[in-house]
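Title: Comparing notes on inverse folding

I've been comparing how different people in this forum approach sequence design from structure. To keep things fair, I'm posting one structure and asking everyone to reply with a full sequence. Here's the target:
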């Protein structure tokens, strides 16, 4: 159940960030939701692999490398949507990634599911 909620939070976070963050520009909510779906699928498929590969380096950076990887994933997925979803800079991608991770952590705390 926690995995489904984390996926739904990822999908919903993109339109919400688009409304409240000046650096994320969204043409319409459908494109934002599609970006959320694409990001959610990448989080399910590629993020665990990236975390395994980078786990040694992440230990050395005290966890900051995972945040940068998530920001890179947000930046990359936004690039797939061209003018439909546009980030002003990598720093805005980092801000969106932090919001998504905070919401996903909140879901983990509420559901008691600590692993993902």
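Reply #1:
Here's my take.
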């Amino acid at each position: 159940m926690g995995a489904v909620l984390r996926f739904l939070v990822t999908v919903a976070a993109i339109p919400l960030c688009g409304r409240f963050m000046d650096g994320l520009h969204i043409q319409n909510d459908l494109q934002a939701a599609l970006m959320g779906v694409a990001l959610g699928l990448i989080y399910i498929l590629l993020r665990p692999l990236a975390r395994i590969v980078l786990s040694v380096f992440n230990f050395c950076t005290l966890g900051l490398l995972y945040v940068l990887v998530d920001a890179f994933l947000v930046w990359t997925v936004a690039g797939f949507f061209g003018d439909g979803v546009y980030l002003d800079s990598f720093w805005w991608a980092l801000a969106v990634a932090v919001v998504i991770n905070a919401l996903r952590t909140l879901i983990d705390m509420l559901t008691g599911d600590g692993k993902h």
